[in-house]
Write a structure and sequence with these properties.
Blueprint (H helix, E strand, L loop, with lengths): L3 E5 L6 E6 L3 H16 L3 H17 L1 H12 L3 H25 L3 E4 L5 E8 L2 E5 L7 H12 L3 E5 L5 H13 L7 E3 L4 H8 L6 E5 L2 H11 L6 E5 L4 E6 L4 H13 L9 E7 L4 H13 L19 H16 L3 E4 L14 E4 L15 E7 L2 H8 L7 E6 L2 H10 L4 E4 L11 E2 L11 E2 L2 H5 E8 L15
Parallel strand pairs: 5-6, 5-8, 6-7, 8-9, 10-11, 10-15, 11-14, 13-14, 15-16
Antiparallel strand pairs: 1-2, 3-4, 4-19, 12-13, 17-18
Helix pairs in contact: 2-4, 2-6, 3-4, 3-6, 4-5, 9-10
């Protein structure tokens, strides 16, 4: 591991930012020292400081959006939407915390007084992804701070500048500098942070492979909170859709928004065999018009590059591998700019592949699967170890009821894309998509734990049975 991390722009290859690798022990110690004082502050004070954070981000929104766009390669319009989500997360988290962890008085036996309150865990580590380098970690950080925790945040080594600027916004809002710390580094620093005895929990967004490793590691420390969000191999079924153009638009949005680099992106399109060609023709015509370009291009692009050349190479190899296994290309994955990770949207018919790989291909690649009837479509949709998002486009209300009841996913949509989940609802999945710790509206559940108290102002007690006469 080098002594510094260098971030480059995917669209140009230019160096964007460089900074020294952090000392994990130091960062955790600073958070530990700051935690107790923060936890003792009234909720109203913590709430006000987080609202100031939202105002700081609002004042720096253009600069932060520009940085995110350049560091991830996503279009500037999409980066601006991400910054708006960072700002909105504060009020959403305040409302969610009040609903999910409100103090309550409970009825007790014999007129006893019982109370329900919540306590923070302590120091929580946050490991963030590169696709939404501000919004997704912020979805952990804000609820954690609101609950009274301290946070040590390690951004992806591919987007360290965005992560560092996010933390600087917390400090500029007046939150204690020790309370929110950033660890700059690569996999070694991530592993050191996850294994550090000074943390009380870990909130993770990333690949299933890393999430499974963390799950094994934390099995020996059940006292520590572990929340995992690990992506998906998400299906979208198009069935008897009356408006094929709108169906095609929804498929394109599901599969290719953010260059397919969303955990909720559609990876598999399931269609009725023999009635699919017109839909695929509509998708082809839309894809032919999509602009793939650098973040600030004019006219604005629909999608930018994937995160780096390594990711682009891996996706092209996966497309070739599916072809070798028997897949039939519908839209070939092209590399329009030599040496840069721009990819054109790709589709491949994998119906005739017997053992289709159940993996998350994190990019603009959509696999098409033809089936004879809706029962087969449902079976194919559930033919995955993941379970994050699933959509049905078309069909009757009765068919959607059948789909909703049988789809194994934490997000089940009808005539909507697989992606674009609201922060005002729970967000999470089953199987390899998570460990039943949904985030967004339910993030408060893993940022604080309930404490039930039976209380009396004066001690009054007696033993009515089992005593010798005295």
């Amino acid at each position: 591991m080098s002594a510094e991390i260098v971030s480059t722009e995917p669209a140009t290859g230019a160096v964007l930012w460089r900074g020294p690798v952090s000392d994990v022990d130091t960062e955790v110690a600073l958070a530990r020292d700051a935690w107790a004082e923060w936890a003792s502050r009234p909720l109203a004070v913590r709430t006000e400081l987080l609202r100031r954070f939202a105002n700081v981000v609002r004042g720096k929104s253009d600069a932060l959006a520009d940085l995110i766009a350049r560091e991830t390669g996503k279009p500037f319009w999409e980066a601006r939407a991400e910054v708006e989500s960072v700002i909105a997360k504060v009020e959403i988290s305040i409302d969610a915390y009040n609903e999910r962890t409100a103090q309550r008085r409970l009825d007790g036996a014999m007129n006893q007084r019982q109370a329900l309150r919540h306590k923070p865990h302590g120091v929580l580590a946050v490991l963030g992804p590169y696709n939404f380098p501000a919004h997704l970690p912020n979805g952990h950080i804000v609820p954690a701070l609101l609950a009274g925790n301290a946070v040590v945040f390690k951004p992806s080594e591919k987007t360290p500048a965005s992560g560092k600027m996010l933390v600087e916004c917390f400090h500029a809002a007046g939150l204690p500098t020790g309370l929110v710390r950033v660890v700059i580094g690569g996999p070694a620093e991530g592993k050191a942070l996850a294994a550090h005895p000074g943390i009380d929990g870990l909130l993770f967004t990333g690949s299933a492979r890393t999430g499974i490793a963390l799950n094994r590691q934390f099995a020996e420390t059940p006292d520590k909170m572990l929340a995992l969000e690990m992506g998906g191999n998400n299906p979208v079924i198009v069935w008897d859709a009356p408006d094929l153009y709108s169906a095609a638009v929804l498929v394109v949005q599901s599969a290719f928004l953010s260059a397919g680099q969303r955990c909720t992106a559609a990876r598999r399109l399931i269609v009725r065999d023999g009635r699919h060609e017109e839909l695929l023709d509509q998708i082809r015509r839309i894809v032919d018009r999509l602009i793939v370009g650098e973040p600030h291009a004019s006219p604005a692009p629909f999608m930018g590059p994937v995160i780096d050349n390594e990711a682009a190479d891996g996706l092209q190899e996966s497309f070739l591998s599916l072809m070798i296994k028997g897949g039939r290309p519908i839209l070939r994955m092209e590399r329009p700019i030599e040496g840069r990770p721009f990819l054109t949207p790709a589709m491949i018919d994998v119906t005739d592949i017997e053992d289709r790989p159940d993996i998350e291909l994190f990019g603009p690649m959509l696999q098409v699967i033809r089936v004879p009837d809706f029962d087969a479509a449902l079976a194919e949709a559930n033919n995955t170890r993941y379970g994050l998002s699933a959509s049905l486009i078309g069909g009757s209300p009765e068919l959607y009821d059948q789909f909703w009841a049988n789809a194994r996913a934490g997000i089940v949509n009808w005539n909507k894309p697989t992606n674009g989940a609201s922060s005002s609802a729970p967000f999470g999945g089953i199987g390899l998509s998570g460990n039943h710790r949904p985030s967004a509206w339910y993030a408060a559940d893993y940022c604080a734990y309930p404490v039930v108290s039976t209380e009396e102002e004066n001690a009054r007690a007696s033993i009515g049975i089992g005593l010798r006469e005295g």
